[in-house]
Amino acid sequence: MIQNVQILPRNEAYWQDNEWKKLLSTAIRDPNELLRLLELDIAELPYQLDKDQSFKTLVPLSFVERMQKTDPSDPLLLQVLPLSEESIRVSGYSNDPLGESTALAQTGMAGLLHKYQSRVLFMLATHCAVNCRYCFRREFPYQENRASKQDWHQLATYLKKNPQINEVIISGGDPLAVNDAYLVEFVAFIEQIPQIIRLRIHTRLPVVIPQRVTSKLLSLTKSRLQMVMVMHVNHPNEIDDKFTSAMHKLAQAGFTLLNQSTLLKGINDCPKILSELSEVLFSAKVTPYYLHMLDRVNGAAHFAVSNKDANVIYKQLQANLAGFLVPKLVQEKSGEPNKTLVDLTI
């Protein structure tokens, strides 16, 4: 006989803290469905879709809602839509443009990169909320580099053997794709290592799903660690009221908020667009930090902007904006001990 069991109702805070998971679970995974939602006829597009799609389509509806219907050149759409150009192999491009396989081998630990002297990067997650077509890790072998909770002690050992390290950067994938309990536990673990003073989170999830900014995420600032969150926003159209509200909550909680963008042909390779991006980011309490040249990963060559064109754009950006709104124009080079500033004399 089944006895009556009292089921306690979940409160509003529970639903608010878990809404992002539902939004992630309903993300679009079919480019044809994405086009249908935007009222675009595939037969009338000025480009062709990639039929192979070794790098799958993934885009949350909350990001799709910011795209302009009937516009095949929408800058948000072009960041996530797989095009036939992705199958073209271009000289100088590779599956591992930053030499991360070598860096991983040097640490001897799954998901741990130590490219820069005072900081390490740890891949806390192996998946994202959105698959950006220009991603330098689009060909990364995540299954071979999946770090689990059992690996954390190995991470701690590595940090203690390298006392010059004072910052842990969590990346992936997207580190905010893990649940809050896992994230809180990881922060508590890192907090126990005295030499670490700062935790940096690189993420695009609050951009595409602002509801990811939950009460538990905000509570991370109670840690003794300095908390830095670096957003990945490329175009002002990505910023809406929900994103701005989420950033205000993070800033009020005590996060230092930065942004890094990638300079992308046909999307933001324009001083006016980049100037507007810096202004709206700063209004949302996010400081423009880096403007990256494209990492030369296979499948992304059609996004490349030449150094010559980048210099013209950047000089105009400097003329348009106050100095604190101008991100550094940089390129990451395999084996270098730091990001390389792009030479503006070219």
Number of domains: 2
Task: Describe the global form.
Answer: globular
The total count of strands amounts to: 9
CATH superfamily of the largest domain: Aldolase class I
Name of the top-level CATH class of the largest domain: Alpha Beta
Protein topology:
Blueprint: H1 12-25, H2 31-37, H3 61-64, H4 77-80, H5 100-107, E1 112-116, E2 119-123, H6 152-161, E3 167-171, H7 180-191, E4 198-203, H8 205-208, H9 215-218, E5 226-231, H10 241-253, E6 256-262, H11 271-283, E7 287-292, H12 307-320, E8 328-331, E9 340-341
Parallel strand pairs: 2-3, 3-4, 4-5, 5-6, 6-7, 7-8
Antiparallel strand pairs: 1-2, 8-9
Helix pairs in contact: 11-12
What is the compact description of this entry?
The protein is of the alpha/beta class. The protein has helices at about 10-25, 30-35, 60-65, 75-80, 100-105, 150-160, 180-190, 205-210, 215-220, 240-255, 270-285, 305-320; strands at about 110-115, 120-125, 165-170, 200-205, 225-230, 255-260, 285-290, 330, 340.
